[in-house]
Amino acid sequence: MADLAAPVLDVRGLKTVFQTRGGEVHAVNSVSFHLERGELLGVVGESGSGKSVTMMSLIGLLPSPPADVRAGSVMLGDRDLLKISAAELQAVRGAKVGFVFQDPMTSLNPVFTVGMQIMEPLRRHMGLSKAQAETRAVELLELVGISDARKRLKAYPHQFSGGMRQRVMIAIALACDPDVLIADEPTTALDVTIQAQILELVKELRRKLGMAIIWITHDLGVIAGIADRVMVMYGGQVVEQAPVKELFGNPQHPYTRALLKTIPSLTGERADRLQVIEGQPPIMTAAPTACPFRDRCAQAFDRCARENPLRRAIDGREVGRGHDVACHWTPEVAHA
């Protein structure tokens, strides 16, 4: 069991705003979470819920302007990533935090060989010689399941299939043995068979390397099979988080319950139609002063329009350490 007193990553009160022609967009609103060593944290929510922006805010991947990380702390070990220099942050990326993007074809440079792209962080961050970096690059390609690895180092991205390119991206992210791997919907663009292969690869890498992983997705079915804990985001904030079995077995937030109902069932009676969440996500042109889900929520009442709910523990444990939810509704309210 991970040491709860020493998370590998501890995020508190993160706020990110975008400056646009139409005014400010409050994309991330006081997000707090932690990541234990060796844990896989699933981050779920609809498109526009703030999942990717939150994670890119952590390690300075958003262009500034228009992005402005206005508040919060991001503790990686004993360093606050929001307070270190740009050069120090660049050293953290790749060396301490690896990032796997959704589309490997746009993330890999088409004019450089795969070998050069794997070797570059090894030489920059770890100071390896060209020969040492090449040996390590071969090991990494073999680790992610690419055969004839030494020969494939000389190939270009377009000479790999989509699934193989994603494996290359994972190899690059793992090159310097990072403490944290962030995977931003890495299987979305792949067919179902290749998705399953990548998920099995990630499970195997966790067993071998024991690293902490943040897996961003809109697919709760994927999270059910790989995550230890789940964080549900909506309107740029965390609305619920819990151990994966607890979240699926006892969802507390109306948005979480609605998301779970959208998952197609392969057993039981066939539903007449798939469930959908009526309405649209909010446009966050101001910091939230009310519950962002209230206009789509059947349980909303007066307080929801007046006050944005804080996360509260529902299992008696500290917020962030057990099962917590940001919702005003309780059984007592229902019977009031």
How would you explain this protein's 3D organization?
Helix content is 34%, strand content 22%. The mean pLDDT is 89. It contains 13 helices and 12 strands. It is globular, with a radius of gyration of 21 Å. By secondary structure, the chain is α/β, with parallel strands linked by helices.
Keyword list:
13 helices; 22% strand; 12 strands; 336 residues; globular; single chain; alpha/beta
Secondary-structure map:
Blueprint: E1 9-20, E2 23-35, E3 40-44, H1 51-58, E4 67-76, E5 79-80, H2 86-95, E6 97-100, H3 104-107, H4 114-126, H5 130-143, H6 149-152, H7 162-174, E7 180-184, H8 192-209, E8 212-217, H9 220-226, E9 229-234, E10 237-243, H10 244-249, H11 254-261, H12 302-306, E11 312-313, E12 324-325, H13 331-334
Parallel strand pairs: 3-8, 3-9, 6-7, 7-8
Antiparallel strand pairs: 1-2, 1-4, 4-5, 9-10, 10-12, 11-12
Helix pairs in contact: 4-5, 5-7, 7-8
